[in-house]
Amino acid sequence: TAIAITEQPVSVSVPVGYSFMLRCRAQGCTSLQYQWFCQYQSDCRLIPGATNQDLPIIAEQTQLYTCRVNDLRRNAVFSDWVKVEVHQCVARGLPPRLWRGEPVIVLNPSEQRVEVGQPLQLQCAAMGVPAPSYQWYRNGNLLEQQKRKKLWITHTKVSDSGTYLCCASNSHGEHWTNAVDVHIGTCGSGKFFAFSLLFVLATGKIALLVGNNRYQHHPNLMAPVRDVFELSRLLEHLGFQVVSLLD
Questions:
Q1: What is the tens place of the pLDDT at every residue in 121-157?
Q2: Which domains does the chain have, with CATH numbers?
Q3: What sequence ranges are listed for the domain Ig-like (predicted)?
């Protein structure tokens, strides 16, 4: 066509009530006209009166936006669809009054305990103008395929255990979420033993308990010591001769 968009609008992630502008710029052989549209869920509609290059917005709810540009020769092009993500609940004091659009974490991931083979989901969120991009890490190592707000592993393995955190970044800088521990293990007797590897070998009335406490990618844990102590008392009550070992 005879119209070329020279500046696309960009997605943003902002708190409710925040005021900003979406921008669209284009060039053509004749004078150009602009018309903005928005989409909420499946409803796409023209925005009355939104016929300028800049669209002022007061953030109320998450929506998609696009701009149609046409000339006097009936040529028309649409800009990219962009997302205006609106956070209804923001921690007190965020963003700062002089916020310039740098990433601000509004949702940190939480510690997870998952049985082997089950799915793992970690989630975070950040505000930013433009909207931040995301990168997840495990034990300080970049996870190439995990570049969304939600980290998703369909079938977990023990090797997926570790400490996870995410970096949110845009053109103004970067911000990191809190680091959280993810425990992948097996469930038994209604109690989860993620890093408390526990073995009971019974021959007659002899029981061997082994509690592992030290791991290459995880800080020392107290659970193995407690588990071995509790099960030792239980097995001795049942008449077993108990041998307990740690690490």
A1: 999 999 999 999 999 999 999 999 999 999 999 999 9
A2: 4-87 (2.60.40.10), 104-185 (2.60.40.10), 205-246 (no CATH)
A3: 3-79, 103-183
